[in-house]
Amino acid sequence: MSLQRSRPRGPNRTSEAGGHGEELQVWEDIKKMLPGAIGAFNDSSSNVLSIRDQDKAVAEKKEKSDIMMEDYNKLDNQLRKGVKINDAAGQSISSIIEQLKILKAVVHAKEQEQEQSTSRSATQRVKESATSSSVYDFDGAGDSPAPSPNPPAARRMGASSSKGDRDSVPPKLDRSTPAAKAGSVEPQTGNAASAMRSKVTFAKEDEVAFKPKPVNNEHTDWILGFVQEVRGEGKSRRYKVLDAEPEEHSVKKDFRTSASNMIPIPKDGTVLPPLETGKTVLAMYPDSTTFYKAEVLGMAPDGKVNLKFEGDESLMQAVVRRYVVDYRG
Question: Considering just the CA atoms, what is the radius of gyration of the chain in Å?
Fold first, then answer.
């Protein structure tokens, strides 16, 4: 049974019903307004040139004492026309700006709703599983998955598993090459880091990133989970962690693991420092519950982190700050 998670790429961009909803309609309205705004701007520019030419002609006739009232009237009409054209252009641009603000607000609201909904549903699954599960065996060390009759499915956050979700896979990485890229800041590992991780403790319902123990030497990724149960003390302390995303047919999977294979996720609302550009991190890929190696490109105005995921360097992704943690292989 493979534990490899495929990386979802989102809906088909050629389909207007790809889950965009209200923001797509707002964007279509904006596109319809653009030709009118461009036309008003071009009319204004053309009228400015006409005013320039007429003003020059009036000045020349005035020097020759050949000026007539019709010349002044023509210039006056062009100036009045310019005021009307500029007002219309200004209104068009203002309307587009307002629609862009609405579009930004709709997208931001949907992102917040998705994040809160995912957090609530995952927490509820922790509570339900804790109520219905039998006594868990924590004897022995290490981490192992509880048996599941179903194969793993694509880890789409907030979406049911389907054949379509499994069509896309993560970029194929060459793991025989060094992990660090030139110019990136790779975290240092060693005894000090291991000792620090061993001192970290977790409590029930804590949100964590954890790495399941490989089965049949297959590669496993860091995935999002919630601490469901804590057993033992000190070095013998073990945790039962529930996978945040259910498998096919809503089958929940839990794992036995230790602190050395877990990374704490800051609670929602925690004030976190900005990340240095070039830093190598572990981040949750958008619309999934799987963490991948990435490089920080900078901080976005809304507090998210702009990232370039390994194997997906041509695309910049923005990830909520608390789902970007220190890199661990």
Answer: 30
Residues with Cβ within 8 Å of 161's Cβ and at least 6 positions away in sequence, in order, are: 153, 154, 246, 247, 248
Which of 170, 111, 163, 139 lies closest to 323, judged by CA? 111
Beta partners for residue 263, in sequence order: 209
Spell out the domain ranges in the chain.
22-113, 133-326
pTM of the model: 0.46
| Token pair of 311 as six digits | 């194997």
SS3 content of the chain, % helix, strand, coil (to 5): 40, 20, 40
CA dist 69 → 61, 117, 140 (Å): 11, 72, 103
Q: Which of 264, 147, 291 is nearest to 205 (CA)?
A: 264
For residue 70, give Cα distances in angstroms to 51, 62, 63, 184: 14, 13, 16, 71
Residue the block writes with tokens 């399941």: 212
Tell me how many degrees the CA angle 215-216-220 measures, rounded to the nearest 5.
45
Tens digits of per-residue pLDDT, 216-243?
888 889 999 999 899 888 778 889 999 8
